[in-house]
Design brief:
Helix 6 (160-170) packs parallel to helix 7 (187-196). The protein is elongated, with a radius of gyration of 18 Å. It is α/β, with parallel strands linked by helices and 213 residues long. The strands form three sheets. It has a five-stranded mixed β-sheet, sandwiched between helices. Strands 8-9-10-11-12 form a five-stranded mixed β-sheet, sandwiched between helices. The protein contains eight helices and twelve strands.
Length: 213
């Protein structure tokens, strides 16, 4: 049994009898919740989930209805997300997986960290089209034809290191959108954004920017 499967099962079963988990085969587990459909989840240890990896999982484990990226900083590529949406097979972290099992809606579950923001960005009146490059990176086309690359930063109080690390990993972004509803970006994060050519904004600031750009 691979390490991520072992830890996933242990963490689920420690909650008692409300719901339970057991290994099915390989990296696939079954989560049983009273009065809900079973969640058949593949527990991935990969740091980045690509379209080709997802297609391999679906080919070898056609019974799954959720894929869990177990590493805390697991990144999902846009092609992988689109493939799973078409199946449909849910995707996200362990928190998303547990929530999906409780709700009985694993095939339609989406990473809880980015769910609200990914829906909100499509609802802004000035946005004509969105293209998801990664779970946390969108290219949006505004109704005036202008394109913007937006990065979703979920840290409580982003620092300059958070902004620079994001830039190094995902490339240039026009806006670093701090989607955590609680904290605020540090002054050093805002300054780092200026040096890299991007704005560091919270929800209201992002909405106002889109309305005036």
């Amino acid at each position: 049994m691979n390490w991520q499967v072992k830890y996933a099962i242990q963490n689920i079963n420690k909650h008692g009898s409300r719901y339970t988990a057991q290994q099915v085969r390989g990296d696939v587990i079954k989560i049983t919740m009273p009065d809900q459909p079973e969640t058949i989840a593949l527990i991935s240890a990969e740091e980045q989930v690509s379209k080709s990896l997802v297609e391999s999982y679906l080919q070898h484990y056609p019974e799954i209805n959720f894929i869990c990226g177990y590493r805390r900083n697991c990144v999902w590529e846009g092609g992988a997300i689109a493939t799973l949406d078409r199946e449909p097979v849910g995707w996200g972290d362990s928190r998303t997986m547990i929530s999906a099992a409780i709700d009985g809606d694993a095939p339609h579950a989406e990473h809880k960290t980015f769910l609200f923001s990914s829906r909100l960005i499509r609802q802004y009146g000035s946005v004509k089209q969105t293209r998801r490059e990664f779970d946390r990176v969108f290219t949006i086309t505004l109704k005036n034809g202008k394109e913007l690359r937006v990065g979703l930063i979920d840290d409580y109080e982003p620092t300059s290191d958070n902004i620079r690390t994001f830039h190094e990993k995902f490339g240039y972004i026009d806006i670093a959108w701090n989607i955590n509803p609680n904290g605020f970006p540090c002054k050093t994060a805002i300054q780092a954004g200026k040096e890299l050519g991007c704005l560091v904004l919270k929800n209201e600031g992002f909405k106002q920017f889109l309305a005036t750009v």
